Amino acid sequence: SVSVVSATDADISNAGFTFYIETGTDGKFEINSSTGMIATSGQFDRRLKSFYNFSVNVLDHGSPPRSASKFLVVNIVDSNTAPIFVKDLTSRQEVARYSFNISEDRPVGTKVGSLYAYDPDFGSSGQLKYSISFQEPINTFVLDSTDGQLTLNRILNYEIKNNYNLIVMVSDNSYEPKTATSTVNINVDNVVESPEWPLPLPVIYFTQSTPCDPQVEALSQEVTTLSIHGDEGVEYKLLNHTDQFSINSTTGNLQVTTSSLSEGDYIVGLTACAKGSTVCSNASLTIKVSVSSGLTFCPAFVTLLVNESSRVNELLHDLSTNKGDAGVQYTITSGNAEGKFRINSTD
């Protein structure tokens, strides 16, 4: 019941009253004609109408009957309704899950998306506050408590983590707050990144040895092996000096491919590309080349004819390439078990 109205009459003979409501209730209230008890007879929505003003009438049972009336004002008070997460504030379509995408190269502070909640209540009961109740790792994203805007708070890396699931909550500001929860799925989009050279590259010191026969012997001396980070894999390429050097496109192994390097500095241009893409970065490598100036002794097979009448200590062959060189020692390593031959160790 909403209320009870009563009436009095000075006439003793007119015992009993009839109560009735004429208009103004929109069918939301009714009155017991005998007791005067007013009760509700419909649903209310404070957003549409916050009060009702109508007249209650009473009629005695005298002859002729006499009547009286009184205006009543019934205020509709707000009941606390729990908020709900919605797709947007226009449609107010309830959602249980949000889904967003963000590229891994976005800076901190980038807006990821917006969450919306609706509460039909008025006043403080309709004031909403957003929060994140779970995320892993923590503080990767922040949620504005007032407008529900979700923002990136940490640098992302697709190769480390490419999906995040958050649990979010919205609560009203009533004396006994009511809440709602939803989940947020965030997919991180991969971005092909250029490999990162560890600049500056160190200076490489390389000493080239002179081959015994440049026309026959292929020269392939390793200079260094380059190794840089690239999430998608790295492909290496030389930009210059391709006649003197080569690089393995997969391993980064850099080699000399000529026997005629001159002493001096070679500034070798390098490029490293993310595998299978045109996203590249360049760098320069300084190679300081020196050519070995020491005695070069090349092995060779020599056929000697020895007469059985040869005398002891008779010279059979001179192996030295430069008799003026010092610091070279010669020795026979095999085939002389009987000691028939000897070699001067110094000349």
CATH superfamily of the largest domain: Cadherins
SSE order, as H and E?
EEEEEEEEEEEEEEEEEEEEEE
**What is the CATH first-level class name of the largest domain?**
Mainly Beta
Largest sheet: 4 strands, mixed
- Estimate nothing, just give the exact number of structural domains: 4
Major sheet strand order:
8-15-14-11
Helix content: under 10%
* Overall pLDDT level: 85
**Distance N terminus to C terminus?**
130 Å
Q: Give the overall form.
A: rod-shaped
Count of separate DSSP helical elements: 0
Oligomer: single chain
Low-pLDDT stretches: 214-219
CATH architecture of the largest domain: Sandwich
> How would you classify the helix and strand content by structural class?
mainly beta
Keywords: Calcium, Membrane, Repeat, Transmembrane, Transmembrane helix
Domain Cadherin: 2-85, 94-204
InterPro entries: Cadherin-like_dom, Cadherin-like_sf
Protein name: Cadherin domain-containing protein
Question: Briefly, what is this?
Answer:
By secondary structure, the chain is mainly beta. Helix content is 0%, strand content 37%.
Protein architecture, described:
This protein has four domains: about 5-75, Immunoglobulin-like (Sandwich); about 85-190, Immunoglobulin-like (Sandwich); about 205-290, Cadherins (Immunoglobulin-like, Sandwich); about 295-345, no CATH class. The chain contains no helices and 22 strands. A hairpin with a 5-residue loop joins β21 and β22 (about 280-290). With about 350 residues, it is an all-beta fold. It is found in: Membrane.
